[in-house]
# Entry
Amino acid sequence: MAVTILAIVFLIVLVIIAIGGSRLLSKQTSNPADLNKEKCSICRKKFDKGELVLREIGDYKLLYFCRDCIVKLYADLGMKN
Ligand SMILES: [Zn+2]
# Structure
């Protein structure tokens, strides 16, 4: 009896995981505009990849910078010199 209950609970958990997984997938596919967006590494706002400058740090780390932050950085540099 206990084994049957365990089996049923296990099945329910599996179903919940399956539903959660498919929801996650459909969320990703239903929002294709978001796939083309990345967060700016400085201000954390989301922009289209086309509006961001991409820099690689080392072999794997990718950093995106938006125009506003680059302009601010440039201004900061100008104040130093
Ligand atoms: Zn930014």
Notes: The two ends are 79 Å apart (CA to CA). The first strand starts at residue 37 and ends at 39.
